[in-house]
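INFO batch 0412 | record 1 of 1 | parsing
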Amino acid sequence: MKKLLLFILLTVLSIGAATAQVSLPNGGFENWTSSVTYNPDNYMVTSNQQAILQAGAAPNCLRVADPYHGNYAIQITTVLGTADTTMGYFLDGNPNGPPQNWTGGIPYTEMPTGIQGYYKSAITAGDIAHLFVNFKLGGVSIGFYVFDFTGNNSNYTPFNFTFMPALTQTPDSIIFGAASSDFLTNTQIPGSMLQLDSISFTGAATQPALLNGDFENWTADTLKSLDNWYAIGGGGNSLGSVTQTTDAYSGNYALELTTYAGDNNGNPRAQPGTEGTGYYVCPNGPGMCNLVGGYPYINMVDTLAFYYKYAPANPTDTAQVSMVFKFNGTQTWWTGGWMLPSANYQYFEVPINLFSPADSVIVMFQSSQWQDSTLVSVGDVLIVDDAYFKSQPLTTSINQWKWNSGELVIAPNPSSDLFYISNYKSSIVSCKVMDVVGNVVLQSTINSNQSTIDIRSFAKGIYFVEVLTSDAQLVRKKMVKE
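INFO prediction complete | emitting tokens
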């Protein structure tokens, strides 16, 4: 074995960087970060998902043991994450479209004259926090009210707002919530904080049974964010559109995306669950967004490869993968592919042939196309696993490589010391082992049906074994070092 390792080392040194591998970080979708959050009971939407999954920030709708009354209060804060700025908010409805068109809410059949409570604040100069109430009857808004908070108040301060103009009809439901920044103008200045407690309606005989205005009742929730990737989409019904699944092609996990019921300027439409290595920033508000992020990439010719399953709710829908190439921050090329329904894992390739240099690439997967906007597409499910760039040498004695994984056997897997690889239909010409970021850690010429890989010196984690066989098969599988 020592002689074999010495031969492998000499081979690697002699080859040098001739077979540079471009990696897609966490393309096996194995690495996820779990964040435990608490959400106030009966409030179906909070900013925590957007902060964690899209902005790359900490939870910003918090249960705090700093109450005016009881045990807890609610605190919302505008935060700056690695990808974007996100205001803190909570809402007992779906914030799709203009506020008057928001759906959901809790039952209430009184005609209150105002709303009162206690607050603390630290609103950044130039920003405004809001409290809002939307009274509805038969699904139609009959009174929408917004109240402002500004300045700094380190001690609990009472507020008592009057509904102007007064309600003229008895509602059947209300939507109530608050935001730490100005959601009306999409002004979001990091650091703005609003803390609320003991909320109640005035001029009414009873309070809504589900208001939870003392913010005493909370439910724990665990959000899992995919490392090195970002959820791309809105809040509201996008909850659950990007999830971890154990239905993996290899390893423990895969990425699952689901098309959800969203909104476009007040009109309901299907929105694809989308995950990418980049993200959108919108300095001038919605519709004025720039796609940023991505990872270093320099190959002019390459191939993106991955495995997928696709179960569309609408049989005519197709899932999509896209790549945006940039050079010096400017988009230079786009390419992609469309995936048809498949109940079993299918291998998929997207050829890359650039006409101008690139220094970075953003890869995005989505569960349906943007054109699939009707609500019959809601529920499309795309599962993706083992996404990577092939990044093979452009010259080879083999005319055309074929990709396969069914004939290669790696055992035991996982292992802590040795992996045995075998391929019985043809001999293994060469073997290469790469880590999750694409670095080649072992490489050898074998010319046999089987061989042994010594991984005792490897760090624990995930690796990829790639072998070239004598019948022009390029075989790639994942292995795990315990």
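INFO post-check: The domain at 42-216 is CATH 2.60.120.890 (Jelly Rolls).
INFO record closed
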